[in-house]
Amino acid sequence: CGLALIVLTLSIGAFLCYKGVGTFTTYNHSIAEFLFSADWAPSDSAEGGGSVGAAIFIFGSVITCALALAIATPFSLATAIFMTEISPELGKRFVQPAVEFPSVVYGWIGLTILVPLIKNIFNLRFGFSVLAAGIVLAVMIFPTITSLAADALRSIPKSYRAASYGLGATRWQTIAKVVVPAAITGLM
After folding, report:
1. Does pLDDT of 110 surpass 90?
2. Average pLDDT value for residue range 163-181
3. Which residues are within 8 A (CB) of 77 and not within 5 positions of it... i.e. 6 or more apart?
């Protein structure tokens, strides 16, 4: 089954490349036009033509992802610290199951609640925006970042914490000056 999934994924990629390469070979569009032009008006005719600039889509995806990371990362790191350092028992019993809620539901909630809310708050004609997409994507990636950060923090030996407390550090000093710096490679 695993091999079939790999073959299926590679087949889809090959099919997309096979069908998409005609844009550059048959209709003589350049890769530079595709990557750096914001003009998207392909022609439906057999001769091709039009313009196929995807820069606006690429830029929008990068901005949306950056916004989502800027929103999700601090909350995810704070939640992971709470789950592992502040209240491990409460984190294991209540926070971990709440964090692992199916993220597909968030897309639907974003579409039905967040988009109209943004539309009304900012007096926009439509609520579909980079802000809405960034917030929904942030909520969707929150569980993954939180789980990975919690695993990285749990991997730090207890002896590091004990040594810090033995030197007179508080819990917050131990977290900020010992645990997080020791787990920084896993957090990154």
Report:
1. no
2. 95
3. 145, 149, 187
